[in-house]
Design brief:
The protein contains one helix and six strands. By secondary structure, it is α+β, with helices and mostly antiparallel strands. The chain folds into two domains: 58 residues; 62 residues, Nucleic acid-binding proteins (OB fold (Dihydrolipoamide Acetyltransferase, E2P)). A five-stranded mixed barrel has the order 1-2-3-6-5. Strand 1 and strand 2 form a beta hairpin. The protein is rod-shaped and about 115 Å long. The protein starts with a helix and ends with a strand.
């Protein structure tokens, strides 16, 4: 072999070693990035999960006042007639002025109705 041929062989060998080293470095960087991603994901779940669980355990807000009466059952004490402007119901022991949800509907005393809405001091009810 000639000296020129030996120098070329060494150069090729050096390039091959550099290529392998670059490949190892690239693989190392990719592995390090994946490890960092997994660690951050696990840490995020460990930190955020208890916060989310505590928010899920909070009870819904309680309705108070007249809004709490919507959806309750009531007993008609006085005939309800929207045309005549008369009608009373008893809701949770309190007597309320009442109107039918539907204008053409009359409701007889003793009928159990649902409170649909409260408008001022008047309960809108439906059979």
């Amino acid at each position: 072999m000639s000296t020129a041929g030996a120098g070329t062989g060494r150069a090729e060998l050096a390039r091959a070693v550099q290529s392998i080293e670059r490949g190892v470095v690239v693989r190392g960087v990719i592995i390090a990035a994946l490890v960092a991603f997994v660690m951050v994901a696990i840490l995020s779940v460990a930190v955020v999960r208890p916060i989310v669980r505590s928010h899920l355990k909070v009870p819904p807000q309680m309705r108070t006042g007249a809004a709490a009466l919507v959806g309750k059952r009531a007993v008609v004490l006085e005939r309800i007639s929207n045309d005549e402007g008369v009608g009373c119901v008893k809701i949770d022991g309190d007597v309320w002025t009442a109107r039918s949800l539907y204008d053409d509907q009359e409701i007889a005393p003793g009928t159990v109705v649902d409170v649909v809405e409260i408008k001022g001091a008047t309960a809108l009810v439906s059979e």
